[in-house]
Design goal:
four-stranded antiparallel beta sheet; 4 strands; alpha+beta
Length: 196
Amino acid sequence: MEKDILDKLNAELRNGINSEKDVLYFMAEARKMLDKGALGQYQTLRFYCNWVLHTEIEDLKDFFEFFVEVSTLVKMYLAAPNASIRRRLNFFVSDFLAFPRLKNELRSLLKEKGLSDQLVNDEPQWRAFAKHMKEIIIDSPLILDSVSKKVPDNRLKSFKLTRKSILRLPERMPFIAWEIWINTSPIPMTGFIREV
């Protein structure tokens, strides 16, 4: 089975990943490959694989630490709002969702499996891949109802990337907004990450 997955990934890399459909297929096959390996390895890649394939996550094993930390920072901020906690939250979320981390983990996986790394080393190919990833993720908010069952005093309702944030940047700026919706506020907590 692993050989079949490698063959499919290799074919996809050879043909080029040029559309959202190609990215979805590649990420689904990459996820199958990750399921064959160590559970703790490639956490960011696994996060993105799951996000492009699901809108509501029931099993948090790959997301648990991330959402526990986000939930903790949100609770700290709501209890005593200050710029330091807000910066920590923004840095944590932005760092975890940053495309450079996805790129590095994809590079490692491709190298480990002996696959072509042109996708991550050729800047125009990487930009196209990242653009399609972003568009898929924007269309797929994470509904976090199941987090409440596993994280005590959780206040997170949903988490998403959006172009329709209440905080808008000029369109020419290369950022997209992330929003954390909480159950005690009519407006989200918002920050920004680079598009590519």
